[in-house]
From TrEMBL:
GO terms for molecular function: oxidoreductase activity, acting on paired donors, with oxidation of a pair of donors resulting in the reduction of molecular oxygen to two molecules of water. This is Fatty acid desaturase domain-containing protein. InterPro entries: Acyl-CoA_DS, FA_desaturase_dom. Keywords: Fatty acid biosynthesis, Fatty acid metabolism, Iron, Lipid biosynthesis, Lipid metabolism, Membrane, Oxidoreductase, Transmembrane, Transmembrane helix. Coiled coil: none annotated.
Amino acid sequence: MVKSSFIDDLLYAPSYGWKDKNAALVVPTTKQLWSEAFSRMNIFKARSNWISFASFLMLAGMLPFFFLFLFKYFSWYLVIAIVVYSMLIMGTHGTIWFHRYCTHKSYGFSHPLWRIITQNLVIRTIPEEIYVVSHHVHHCKSDEPGDPYNAQAGFWYCMLAEYNHQRVSPDLSEDAYKKAVHFMKHTGVKLNSYQQYQKWGSIASPMYTIGVWLLNWSFWYLVFYFIGGTGLACALFTAAMLWFALIRAFNYTGHGGGKEKHRDGIDFDRSNLSINQTRPGLIAGEWHNNHHLFPGSARAGFLPGQLDLAWVYIYALRKVGMVSWYKDSKKEFLKKYISKGQVSDLMPLTGDNYNMGHLDYEGL
Ligand SMILES: [Zn+2]
Ligand SMILES: [Zn+2]
């Protein structure tokens, strides 16, 4: 694991703290978690709460579509559209964009246009920095105190992590801020200067974040409206809302709900609680145990039957030249873990430790 005070102090520590004086994980009550979340969304308390407030507004802005769908445009055909859009399309896009590109830089685009199209391929939800910065911490401190979605602290600890544990600390030094910016530079998101960060408490510029959000929603509303009328538009915004609200559960289940659930021959990384689950794997390419072994790989489905739709997208874009390079660790995985053919050989193997290379410190 990376020992670095930069990583230790990168995220905005919750008021209940990450660990107690014996260095054990603090497990807050559900009430504590909700009150922390509400205080972090409170824009009247601090301007720097804007990013959590915007996230709340986003969910609230999707609710009217949900009610319109439910009470005015409901049909079973649209229910199928919701299931496909939320689980398959939003899910796979999350892997392609937030996870494999923005966070792990596992592939590159040949032109910024392809990057912008990929970013906006679905209805926009979470701002990139909320995912990216905290996800590096998740890899550095998987299942340890300080892991922003430590499943051992319970379901709501993960569900409310976006507000309570995933925001960048408002107290970074200029030097630390520069390092944090380094995680985001390639994403195309307009970033704050240190002075602007001190004012807004975020890496992303609020104007950019709100502007992209409004443009993206207007574009997709019109597209869906022309394809299938108001009914389809309401249904797919409902789908986006469901994904946005429920995806947080993956951070809990993807690490076994805080319990050791590894299966021999399937989960080869025993250094943390991550597991390969069939559903997130098949629908979104999130073979999470494989991913913890090779975080920098643009592909995570390594074994037969581990369909990886996010990889299909990246590979297809490489074929047509929109993606200029990618890293594929399948061969390395097979050589290291499968060719031995002995499950007993694999215990207690640890993963490819999340190191300075993964954090991409070059040039700092
Ligand atoms: Zn994980
Ligand atoms: Zn990851």
